[in-house]
Amino acid sequence: MRRGKKAGASPRAKLRPRRERGAPRGPITLAIDVGGAGIKALLLDPHGEPLTERARVPTPRPATPARVVEAILDLVRPLGDFDRVSVGFPGVVVGDTIRTAPNLDGRWKGFPLARVLSLKLGRPVRALNDAGVQGYGVIEGRGTEMVLTFGTGMGTALYSDGHYVPNLELAHHPFRGKKTYEQYVGGRALEKIGKERWNRRVKQVIDQIDPVWNPRRIYLGGGNSRHLRLDLPRHVSVTENVAGLLGGIALWRD
Ligand code: BGC
User: pTM value?
Assistant: First the structure.
């Protein structure tokens, strides 16, 4: 594989490179975002700028570790060479191991994703919760900042002066009646109740979370955030979903 090769042949490429560059000096990061509906990937230069367009494939079903790993390998093959890999994963990630994957498959519990991908790709791999990675792509690094993602699942991430507090999982906390936050505003709820009611529900979720955590900023993201039509308070903003890949550079900051 060649460094810096464009992902022209990749499935559903969506993001144009921000700028054309010569051969960048420093490590190239392959950023991968595993989602409930799609797996996305692109290459980042040493400054965290995209070097390729975003490539995407639908998440295989059933989304077992073996099938997702296979899909990742197929997805990243045309992107070009890289030195290290960052993975955003839709569940609790501790070290290189997956603890939960509520919207994928039961077989993920205990799966050493980072180790397996590292063996397959021949490069070091770091993995983190997907909302955690997304936040690294958007936060300012001051005070308490929070990320809420709306996709198949609902992702939550918390930062204090730029430091990530791992694996905050508000998604599965009871919210209204017998429903958890994720059951209330996740992908299935959106499909069932339509965009208008879903927007009202998202507003209720924000109104509940905001005065409990009192973040300086709240960033909304995830695939379904494109359906948001809300008048948001000044400290709440909708961010681009590609942040889930751009944030991958932060996993190598130390
Ligand atoms: C998971 C989170 C994840 C979110 C978004 C939830 O179901 O529990 O870990 O961040 O979905 O993918």
Answer: 0.91
